[in-house]
């Protein structure tokens, strides 16, 4: 009954895939950095390649003449439907192929991204008619933080931090992620999802310095 209620409630509001598509469309409509500012959480983090607060990086930044284009191919969603990790293909200006990953959290003000990173790709990523959505299990209460080791998270850490590493989790602890940037600019992201028995790794990005 509880699972059915959660699924029905989640279906009644825009999904993280909807938010991603709106974000990508606005990048073309109002400009790349204007769109990033519009959808960014107050504590969102991005990479240049070291971690920076998005609010500082984006403040007063002028839009480029041409915006990056991107589209989701997969979405990993927490049981309660309020946190998601989207990943997919991208095309940077100059027709350079790439990929992206965005972490989203649904707030009273709608969906806001808290983590965004991209990487070059050797080949184009196909645009699916419908992205594959994978939801965390709602069976059995998740026992702790998804990121291993399961250390306690402060409120600030749960929203990620602008240090060399950070981690976060959904409020119901069924979806978690961690990232680390090395001094040479290489970047790693891991995403874990509760499957009803354990936290299973569902995404592992190793991003070389661009």
Q: Work out the helicity level.
A: 10-25%
Please tell me what the overall shape is: globular
Oligomer description: single chain
Tally of structural domains: 1
- Beta fraction of the residues? 35-45%
Which structural category fits the helices and strands?
Answer: alpha+beta
CATH architecture: Roll
The major pleated sheet works out as: 7 strands, mixed
- CATH C-level class is Alpha Beta
Distance between the termini: 48 Å
Strand order of the largest sheet: 2-1-6-5-4-3-7
The number of distinct helices, counting runs of at least 4 residues, comes to 5
Arithmetic mean of pLDDT: 88
Low-pLDDT runs of 5+ residues are none
Provide a descriptive summary of the structure in words.
The protein is an alpha+beta fold. It has one domain (2-207): Nuclear Transport Factor 2, Chain: A. It is 20% helix and 41% strand. It is built from five helices and eleven strands, in the order αααββαβββββαββββ. The protein has helices at residues 2-11, 16-29, 32-39, 54-58, 155-158, and strands spanning 40-47, 51-53, 69-77, 83-92, 96-107, 110-120, 132-135, 165-169, 175-181, 187-194, 199-207. A seven-stranded mixed sheet has the order 2-1-6-5-4-3-7. Strands 8-9-10-11 form a four-stranded antiparallel sheet, with no helix packed on it. The longest helix is centred in the first third of the chain and has 14 residues, at 16-29. It is globular and about 50 Å long. The N and C termini lie far apart (48 Å). The model has no long low-confidence stretch (mean pLDDT 88).
